[in-house]
Amino acid sequence: xxxxxxxxxxxxxxxxxxxxxxxxxxxxxxxxxxxxxxxxxxxxxxxxxxxxxxxxxxxxxxxxxxxxxxxxxxxxxxxxxxxxxxxxxxxxxxxxxxxxxxxxxxxxxxxxxxxxxxxxxxxxxxxxxxxxxxxxxxxxxxxxxxxxxxxxxxxxxxxxxxxxxxxxxxxxxxxxxxxxxxxxxxxxxxxxxxxxxxxxxxxxxxxxxxxxxxxxxxxxxxxxxxxxxxxxxxxxxxxxxxxxxxxxxxxxxxxxxxxxxxxxxxxxxxxxxxxxxxxxxxxxxxxxxxxxxxxxxxxxxxxxxxxxxxxxxxxxxxxxxxxxxxxxxxxxxxxxxxxxxxxxxxxxxxxxxxxxxxxxxxxxxxxxxxxxxxxxxxxxxxxxxxxxxxxxxxxxxxxxxxxxxxxxxxxxxxxxxxxxxxxxxxxxxxxxxxxxxxxxxxxxxxxxxxxxxxxxxxxxxxxxxxxxxxxxxxxxxxxxxxxxxxxxxxxxxxxxxx
Length: 498
Description:
By secondary structure, this protein is of the alpha/beta class. It folds into two domains: 3-236, Rossmann fold (3-Layer(aba) Sandwich), CATH 3.40.50; 270-496, Rossmann fold, CATH 3.40.50.300. It has helices at residues 13-37, 54-64, 80-83, 89-92, 110-117, 123-142, 156-168, 178-185, 187-201, 216-236, 270-289, 310-318, 336-339, 345-348, 370-373, 379-398, 412-424, 434-440, 443-457, 472-496, and strands at residues 42-48, 70-74, 101-105, 146-153, 208-212, 297-304, 326-330, 357-361, 401-409, 464-468. The strands form two sheets. A five-stranded parallel beta sheet has the order 2-3-1-4-5, sandwiched between helices. The relative contact order is 0.12.
C-alpha cells in the first residue's frame, strides 16, 4: 500500500508559493460555506510514521483555516476518567458538530496499532478493533459525516534521515525523543501492522489517503487540495438521502407477539409489597457497597408505555442508592446541540465510570420507537439503528458495564384509567400532555415497534426485561429483583476473574 509514497514526491518552492495563496482562499471559502449550511461535519484523522509531518500538517491546517470552525484533538495517554469507560468514549465526546471540522491527531487507530506492534495484543484482538472501527466509521458516514483519513508515510531510510535532521537542529531537537528511536527500531513491525490495518479499514465510505511525508511542500499541497476537493463536492452536490435496502418488517402473520404473552393480571398485595421492597432495596444497597462493584458500572434503561410507571419504579431504585454514586438522565426531544451530532452522541456522553450507576428515563431506543412511529427519521435511519444500538451496548458490556433494560407494559384500558386519574390530581397534571392523548391513537404502531425492538436488540449481553406493569407493586418488585440478580451475576464474574 505504501509503494506510491516512496517515490520521492517533491514540489519546488516557487510552485508551492504560487499555489498556496489560491488554495488558502478556496479552503476558507469552503469552510465558511460549510459553517453556513451546517448540514454535515468533517472528521479528519491524522496518522502515520513518526517524523513524516503529522504535527506540521495539523499546525498548517490551523494556520490556513479559520480556527473558530476547526477543532483539533491530540490524543495521548488515557486519563483515569477515560480508562474507566469504553475506549471509544473519549472520541465520541470530541466529535465535531455539523458545520465544523474536527481534526484527530492520533485517533481510534493509534492504540490498536501500537498495542499489536508492542505485542501487548494478538492478531485476533487487532482484527476485533478493526471491525469496531469499521462499524463506527460506517455509522458516522451513514449519518452524513465526511471522514478523511490521511496516513503520512516515510521509507525506513527516509525516516532515519528525517529523525537525524530534526535532532541536529536546535529548534526542532525537542521533537525527537527516545521513544521515537525505539519505535524506529520496530519500523518493520509498524509497517506490517499498519498496512494490514489500513487495508482492512480503507472502505468506500472512508478510504485511506497515503501521503509521502519527505517533502513538506508536496505534503502540504496534497492534503490541502484533497481536503478542498472533498469539501466542495459535498457542499456543492449534497449527498442523497439513503433509502433502506432491507426487506420491510412485517407483523407476525398469526398476530401473536412478545407482548401478547405477558400476564397482565399479576398483582402483589400491599403487605407483601412492603416486605419485598425492604428486602430488595436492602440487597441492592449492599451490592453497590461491595468492593467488587467498583469494577463494574450499571446502566439501567427504562422505556415503556406512557403512564407505565417508569418514574415510580426509578424512585424505588434510587431510594436504595448512595446519592453520590448514581445519576438519572431524563431523555426528552434532542436539543439543537444534540441534533448537530449523531443520535448516540448524547448517550455516549452520559456513560458512567466504573463503580457508578446511571439510570436513563427513556433512552437511545427513541430512534426505533417514537422517531420511527412519528417519522422523525427515515426508514433507513431507524433500520440501521438496531445494529448500531447492539454495537453500542456491546462496547458498554465489554468494559464491565451491566446494561439492564426494562420495558414497562400496561394495557390500553389501564393507560386510559391512569390518564384520567392524572387529570384530576393537581400535582400530577403536569404528567399528562396533549401528546400523550395523541400517542394513544397510534397504539398499534407503537406495539409493533416495541416487538421489533425486543426481537432485534434483546441480546445475551443486554437482554430486555418485559415488565407487566398494570399493577405498580408487582412491577416495582420485579424490576428491583431483576436489577439485583443482574448486578450480582456481574460481580460473581469479577470474583471468578481474580
